[in-house]
């Protein structure tokens, strides 16, 4: 059972966190280009930005599977109180909070002028200053990605593990 839980946990992490990391990283570029570009390229960039936002938003919901199966695996292995796992869980919670409370809402605000984005904008249609918002989102996404990189390293190295790694 442990091997099954670990396999699902790793697959979920790869198939869910990976696309979020890529989509969130690409979003600021396309949102900025859609705001500055006109004509067909501006419309295409806006469409790409909307798609990347939808990927981040929907995969964030599915992403709950990663910690759920991770905790189940940790319980099976009897390592839920190990420091490396507690730190990993804390960093995972921070990354999730960053995604849900800052990155996805920031994307939504940037898409305010783009039609068809649920809950976008401030109701007045004024949107946000594009360059600073894109820079802030790029920085937040970088922090999100670094948090996940640290979690991956902790999962592989597992300080104090008996695997000899």
Brief characterization of the structure:
The chain has 165 residues and is mostly helical. Helix content is 78%, strand content 0%.
Descriptive report:
This is DUF2269 domain-containing protein. Keywords: Membrane, Transmembrane, Transmembrane helix. It is elongated, with a radius of gyration of 18 Å. It has one domain (about 1-155). The chain is built from 5 helices and no strands. It is about 80% helix and about 0% strand. The longest helix is centred in the first third of the chain and has 35 residues, at about 1-35. With about 160 residues, the protein is mainly α. The two termini are about 25 Å apart.
Spans of at least 5 consecutive residues with low confidence = 119-127
Bulk shape: elongated
Number of helices: 5
The major beta sheet can be summarized as: none
Radius of gyration: 18 Å
Keywords: Membrane, Transmembrane, Transmembrane helix
Transmembrane segments: 6-27, 59-77, 83-104, 137-157
Protein name: DUF2269 domain-containing protein
Question: Which descriptors would you attach to this protein?
Answer:
165 residues; mainly alpha; 5 helices; 0% strand; DUF2269 domain-containing protein; transmembrane; membrane; transmembrane helix
């Amino acid at each position: 059972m442990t091997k099954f839980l670990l396999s699902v946990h790793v697959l979920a992490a790869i198939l869910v966190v990976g696309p979020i990391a890529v989509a969130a990283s690409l979003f600021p570029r396309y949102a900025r280009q859609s705001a500055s570009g006109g004509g067909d390229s501006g419309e295409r960039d806006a469409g790409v930005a909307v798609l990347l936002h939808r990927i981040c938003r929907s995969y964030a919901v599915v992403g709950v599977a990663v910690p759920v199966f991770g905790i189940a695996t940790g319980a099976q292995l009897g390592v839920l109180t190990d420091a490396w796992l507690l730190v990993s869980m804390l960093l995972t919670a921070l990354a999730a909070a960053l995604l849900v409370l800052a990155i996805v809402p920031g994307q939504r605000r940037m898409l305010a002028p783009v039609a068809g984005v649920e809950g976008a904008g401030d109701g007045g249609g004024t949107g946000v200053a594009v360059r600073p918002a894109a820079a802030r989102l790029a920085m937040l996404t970088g922090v999100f990605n670094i948090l996940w990189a640290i979690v991956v390293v902790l999962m592989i190295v597992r300080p104090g593990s008996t695997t000899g790694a």
